[in-house]
Amino acid sequence: MSDDHSSNHDSRRKFSRKLLEVPQDRLRTRRPSGDASRASKTDESPRNSQQPTNRALEYQSVKGKLHERMIDEMNDQAVLSQSDETLEQFVNDFVNDVLETEDWPLNDSERRRLAGDLIEETLGTGPLAVLMGDPAVTDILVNRFDCVYVERFGQLELTDVRFRDDEHLIRIIGRIAARVGRRIDTSSPLVDARLPDGSRVNATLPPVTIDGPTLSIRRFGRRRLTRQDLLRLGMFSSQMHRFMDLIVKERMNIVVTGGTGSGKSTLLGAIAEAIPDGERIITIEDAAELLLTQHHVVRMETRASNIEGKGQITQRDLVVNALRMRPDRILMGEVRAGEALDMLQAMNTGHDGSLTTIHANSPRDAFARLETMVMMAGLELPSKAIREQAVSALNFIIHVRRFDDGVRRIERIAEVTGIENLTPQLQDLYVFQQSGRDSNGIRGEFHATGIIPRIAEDLLARGVELPKQELFGRGN
Predict the structure, then answer these.
(1) Which of 229, 354, 220 is nearest to 291 (CA)?
(2) At what angle do helices 108-123 and 52-76 cross, to 10 degrees?
(3) Cβ distance 172 to 184 under 8 Å?
(4) CA distance linking residue 244 with residue 271, whole number of Å
(5) How far apart are CA 82 and CA 245, in angstroms?
(6) 292-331 burial, b if ≥16 CB within 10 A, otherwise e?
(7) Distance (Å, rounded) from C-alpha 456 to C-alpha 464?
(8) Taking burial as the number of CB atoms within 10 A of a residue's CB, which of 106, 217, 224, 405 is the most buried?
(9) Closest by alpha carbon to 110, among 43, 29, 172, 177?
(10) Is the peptide bond before 206 cis (omega within 30 degrees of 0)?
(11) Could you say which DSSP state residue 451 is in?
(12) What radius of gyration, in Å, describes the C-alpha atoms of the chain?
């Protein structure tokens, strides 16, 4: 009995989590080392040295066959619904048994990584694990099972990562959705979800996407980017940094606008750092992304309907509920529909200092988008009433843009000053002025327009005097 226990202990140690490191031969760039060259000499097969691609394909084929067999055994033993620890132990025992009792065309390196790869296939993101482990990757875009792109440093590039077939990709998508309580199948072929690390996931199945299932993962890094990080990356100037800190602390209502992938959510989380730690903050999101450092934070997330079409909880439901939770600040990840009306009403009824984001091409376009979304609430409000309420609620609009060189920058910070002839009035306080481009990308500089914001008088009445030359002087 003790011998069996010792044998099991050794096998578990052999295929433990320490072997889940990213295999070097799955990285796109590889430098041969002394150890690697010695390992290649150990495998004298000319097929290994002359046809590494075929060797990798052979390994993928073996792994695929074993994975299918393992899944069948898991289904037979009803293991798939068990905890991660139970599943991991099952995989280790399965691999140990197969390698000891059967003859598979695997070299020593492949045998060592087999358990880790099968665990990743069962619990994680499968072939995408190597990309998820790359901190430089911000987006993973699976167009088909054999076509995977990534974004690195603002630029898209094709990878050599592949799934075996459509069924393999669908299985990974289903696993991601199931782990966060979402469902995706032919009757409901669209899903928005998030991974445990906060990455945002969108997936589709045929017939919505004609060429096969797709998967898009928007990653947010292993840690949240802070204000200082964004300042160092050139997203804004130190002058703009000081001004944004001031208006957040003084409870101004702010909307961050921009296009897809422009960095709206990242910027929202960064400027929210300026909220004093003693205030009660409630965040509302479709997929929870915001990670705040304050202690008094309540995070809320929408829920899709179940298979019977019941149980859906929308952002609008959460906004209405949040107003009953005594919030000092409400942070909404993104306004997309009728919740815009409730958000504007909250800003107009004592919940100052609220922050949100909107898809828009410019600060002025944000008002047109807001008007459209308020109409989606189902109330027949006149256009004049909607615009007046929006102008009354908002103090500042920060517009962020991803430029051609892949760098995200704040293009302008505008103050909402009023409304004339049903047209919202804005004045730019800071702008990014592009002067050209060189081998390093776009050249330009941030500068203040020299305009003193109208809220300066209100702040002075509160006892807050703005350092006007320091904040709004040209060339600072």
Answers:
(1) 220
(2) 50
(3) no
(4) 7
(5) 47
(6) beeeebeebbbebeeeeeeeeebbbbbbeebbeeebbbbb
(7) 8
(8) 217
(9) 43
(10) no
(11) P
(12) 27
In the DSSP assignment, the letter for residue 362 is S
Q: How far is CA 36 from CA 26, 40, 46, in A?
A: 14, 6, 16
DSSP structure class, residue 185: B
1 by Cβ neighbours in 10 Å (0-12 / 13-18 / 19+) ranks as exposed
Residue corresponding to tokens 């999101």: 285
Residues 6+ away with beta carbon under 8 Å from 228: none
Lowest mean pLDDT among 68-82, 128-142, 344-358, 366-380: 68-82
Tokens of 434: 């592009």
Q: Where are the alpha helices (DSSP H) in 15-144?
A: 34-42, 46-50, 52-76, 84-101, 108-123, 129-132
pLDDT for residue 267 is more than 80: yes
* Beta strands 214-218 and 329-332, pairing class: unpaired
- Please report which residue ranges of 250-350 form alpha helices under DSSP H: 264-271, 315-322, 339-348
Is the pLDDT at 408 greater than 80, yes or no? yes
Q: How far apart are CA 75 and CA 201, in angstroms?
A: 26
Q: Are 429 and 243 in contact (CB under 8 A)?
A: yes
Is the pLDDT assigned to residue 475 strictly greater than 70? no
All domains of the chain in start order, with CATH: 1-115 (no CATH), 124-222 (3.30.450.370), 227-472 (3.40.50.300)
Task: Specify the amino acid at residue 417.
Answer: T
DSSP 8-state assignment for residue 440: T
Token pair 């992304």: residue? 289
Strand partners, 148: 142
Which residue type does 74 have? M
For the stretch 417-439, what's the b/e string if a residue is b when 16 or more beta carbons lie within 10 angstroms of its beta carbon? bebeeeebebebbbbbeeeeeee
Mean pLDDT (the chain) is 82
pTM given for the model: 0.70
Model confidence over 182-240: pLDDT tens digits? 778 888 899 887 776 678 889 999 999 999 999 999 886 656 788 999 999 999 999 99
Contacts 24+ apart (CB under 8 A), 164-167: 164/60, 164/64, 166/212, 166/213
Percent of the chain's residues with pLDDT above 90: 44
Cα separation, 245 vs 236, in Å, equals: 12
pLDDT tens digits along 34-74: 444 434 433 444 444 444 456 666 777 787 788 778 877 87
Q: Which pair of structure tokens corresponds to residue 207?
A: 């017939």
Quick one: which of 250, 349, 326, 331 has its CA closest to 294? 331
CA atoms within 13 A on the CB side of 128: 30
What are 473's two structure tokens?
A: 């002087």
